[in-house]
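Researcher: Structure for this, please.
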Amino acid sequence: MLRRVLVAAILAAISGQGASAATGTVVSSAANGLSLTISTQWLDSGGYRPVRVTVAPLAPSKADQTVHLEFHGYNYFYPSSREITVAQDIEIPAGSTQVSQTIPVPQLFPLQNFKVEVWVDGRYRPKLSLTSFAGAMSNEGLPNVLVVAKPTPAGAPPPLGASTLAADPDSSLLASVFPADVVTMQQAYWGAPTAPVGTGPPPLQTLITLPSNYLPRRWIELSCLDIICISVDELEQLFTAEPEQFQALRDWTMAGGNLIVFNVGAQFEPLATLSKRLAGHSDPDETVWTRPKPDDYRDQLSGPYNTYTQVTLVAAPMPQDAPFMLRPLGTGMVVAAATDDLFKQPAQHWVWMLNSLGSDRWLWYRRHGLSLQRRNGDFWNWLVRGVGLAPVTEFRVLITGFVLAIGPLNYFWLRRRGKLHLLVLIVPLAAVTVTFGLFSYAIMADGLDVRVRARTYTQIDQRAGQAVSWSRISYYAGLAPAGGLVFPDDLIAVPLTSNDGDVNNMPYHQNLVWSAGKQELVSGWVPSRTPTQYLTVRSRRSQAGLRFVPPGGQKGAQIENQLGTRVVRLLVADDQGRHYGGADIAAGARASLKPVDPGDGRSAIQELVNDRKPGVPQGFVPPSESTFRGRVRYYGSATSGAVPGASLGTSRLETCLRDATMGADRQASKADRAQLAPRTYIAVVERSPEVVFGVDEPREEDSLHVIVGSW
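Model: Predicted structure, token format:
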């Protein structure tokens, strides 16, 4: 404990934490005609941390230059430190005065130290290279909140620093709704000043503000965040003047984020425009915005805090008119709040909003269903079947034959020939031969290719041409792929590791290279002969979908498959709410549909989903349930003990799969839950067009791919 406090104090002093809620630091160097500024300041969680890089020529360059950066992040909390290396090129056009870019760094572990190595036009420049404390810590007990402020004055934004990432506005109101012990622990862990007794709660260390012109242009760089707050005017300004940043915000929300748009007015007049901006089209369904449930208006959070005393607010009457409204957007949620200042409204309104969203949404580890620090017991229920386990029966037969042959049979055979002295040679040679045979058998049984097993949910809004997918992918590589994994740059890949004792399932060193439109996970991501899993989330524009052809003349309803994959089972509701079913529709084909009862159609889909339920392989005992335990891994976390362990059951992946197959409204009758909304469909497909495995021609087995679409 003392070591953790000392490290936190040192990091706070060096990083200049003070009143700033952002972790990380800003460091600079100058040499070889260039100045370089690196900012690691951001909020800590899973996802990809945007490391901001600013390169400025000391004098206008007469020719184009290429600056190659390698960011090395370390964790010094372990006896053997973990390391991630992320490389990216930055082009400096001739005549440039300053170029700013971000390097997305996967936060696989708390980044305590970092080193940046620099090459300019292929030559290593040690004087430009930097080493510093990164100052990143883990956080699972509180949401990460970003407040988007007005843009800084015109011109290129200066390097990101404490002056732009600050705990402003005053976040003590929001902090007051969480257990005081959890908030105080976060403060003390960072050495930040705590409020004197009787003066109210301290600021929330997981809240920052950011000028709108600093917002990232890729949604993956927002993936550490749980809640983003922005005024309706700033959102409209982004839509008009910064379409890339607006699209990143929209993609992040669709990928499961929680967007709070405030200052919409007591009468919620901008809702129609807000929907059109965010959804990409006008909603024909006027009930897409809903008022919060009165049952969620309470005097305390209905959050998942275990051992800490919940804050009980002073009782206040529920407002006659709800101060906010909600709507889903992809797999995320949008809250439209009437107030013009989220941090001066009654605290009960924050509780009402957070209860309406649910902690399964506003806590990162619950939304994703995994922890990067603590045990993930669900790791063992989605293994590639039949690999990685010893062929016990075959081994027993072979070893029994070996014992009989090398023992009595060999002895009697040599004694009859008077050559018992050869036992000292034959026994070890036979043992080596049999051992090599068993090893070879195990390798050949598992194979040398890459085998994958996927469980995916994809949502496609064909009117907007937008898609989002959540995937749990299990890998088993007989031989690690030479090029590692290659994913597009609109996807985050988060490792799902068991964290059972000393079983981590991941190497200590990983390398990633960013290039045009892709991220290359070069080495250390899929070890040979080791079960490996990732949760991937992708949000992007997409033209995939199904084209419904209503009945006309002598022809019944038809469907044209433009998903690029075979549809195994399909249930469709037309614009009148009539339901049709289909099966085995090839990619690019047109097929006739038959009218079906909604309940029967939903049951057929659910049966396929149930056949692919996660489960621990028969006869397999996870390490956490065995009598032998390795050393307990040490993780630095200020609030992990305040909340329950991770479970994929709370993830958006599993929640959306349940909602798709069983119906989202659990209070409705079974018949009502079976009904699809008009102009929507559910399809179980051979492989989702939005899911990327990262390797060429993997052997896919026992997968489940579900698509929910609308047109």
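Researcher: Any notable elements?
Model: The two ends are 56 Å apart (CA to CA). DSSP finds 14 helices and 31 strands in the chain.
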